[in-house]
Amino acid sequence: MQKNSSVRVLPISAYDDNYIWLATDGRACFVVDPGDAQPVIAYLKEQRLLLKTILITHHHADHVGGVAELVSWVQEHQQLTPIVYGPAHEEIDCVAAGLIEGDSLHIQDPPCDLMVLDVPGHTAGHVAFHVQTSDA
Fold first, then answer.
1. How big, in percent rounded to 5, are the helix, strand and coil portions of the chain?
2. Residue pLDDT, tens place only, 32-46
3. CA 43 from chain center: how many Å?
4. Among 4, 33, 96, 120, which one has the highest count of C-beta atoms within 10 angstroms of its own C-beta?
């Protein structure tokens, strides 16, 4: 049985050359590396999506700069507090749960199972998220 089959992944442009990735089932969503909150907020409003989770790959400002504003906006306008996950080996404000190589992450809404990979190089604590696509 395929997991994540109803979840679409879409880019949201940010700055001159970055993307914020958004995964959605058409009702709920999660975002990856929201360095700028405003394009995410605009997309959430336009598509009427609930933001449930934020994933962070590393600590650079163009990847985390919008997290606090985004969390505040969601709390005020959607009466939710999105869970923020990020690398355990980096100091990032707002991260509720630190992740390391081999961690499995089940996002309930929208439904998605991810495996965490350590990918040091860009930063020492950088992580990536691999989508698990089938039951094993």
1. 20, 40, 45
2. 999 999 999 999 999
3. 14
4. 33
